[in-house]
Amino acid sequence: MKKTLHISNERPGLWQDTNVTYAQVPGWLGHTTLDLQLTVLRQFEDQSRPLPVIFWFGGGGWMTVDHNVHLPNLVDFVRAGFVVVSVQYRNSNQAVWPAQLEDAKAAIRYIKARADDYQIDPKSVVVMGESAGGHLASMVAVTNGQKQFDVGDHLDQSSAVQAAIPWYGVVNPLSAKQNSETSDFDFVYRNLLGGEPEDHPELVSQADPHTFISDATVPFLLLHGTADEVVPVADSRSLYDDLIRHGVDADLYELTGAHHMDEAFMQPEIVKIIVAFLNKHLNN
């Protein structure tokens, strides 16, 4: 069989910049240097204008981080016109809180310093993540302007973001531990904080988005499954209520029957909700 085809370019091709080192931090008890990496997904056929950027933080209970694991699903957002940056951050065996927050902000500053290289609009920055990464996305957003968390290179760049989208994110570490339907993951909160949440309210407060919410907090879109057995959906409801009390533009979508890290969150309907939310708030 021989055919001649006339193909129209209905969608752009994509670049993948894999395992880009954005920071070097102390590793192995301070005796080595640890590279922190990120991967960038972006369009390469339309470079006529800068694009909004989504920073993605994967889950893993702060115990393990694979910043490439969700790349196939994140392509949906690249197709919708966003640059996606998936970020490695230190796990709790490597450093305790707030090292993870410092890493996230360092990644944002790194990409902003190279905005032209990666075709991003540094004034249209979104943080999104799941579970432990959802907690990190929330904390990045509510600490806009908190200079104590900006550590490392590119300090001439702002780590401020314009919107946050936590998926079934941990909120208050003590509440998450005490109200989870399972005790299998109780240890992750001790490892993150460097002490038991019950015994260290000051450490819990430093890792609780509620502590930092103000009337200047950026818009939030929260996603949570009603059957989440690991992170209580009530904690997302509490965060939503607190955001609303402060006059913050916030939406909460509860997915009926969805469990923790459920495939329901990867469905086209959710992508449409997220894209609509971002188009609304990033175009203001």
TrEMBL record:
Q: Is Protein biosynthesis one of the keywords? A: no
Q: Which residues form the BD-FAE-like domain?
A: 46-243
Q: Which UniProt keywords apply?
A: Hydrolase
Q: Which residues cross the membrane?
A: none
**Molecular function (GO) terms listed?**
hydrolase activity
- Pfam families referenced in this protein's UniProt entry, alphabetically: BD-FAE
What is the name of this protein?
Answer: Esterase/lipase/thioesterase
Identify the species of origin.
Lentilactobacillus farraginis DSM 18382 = JCM 14108
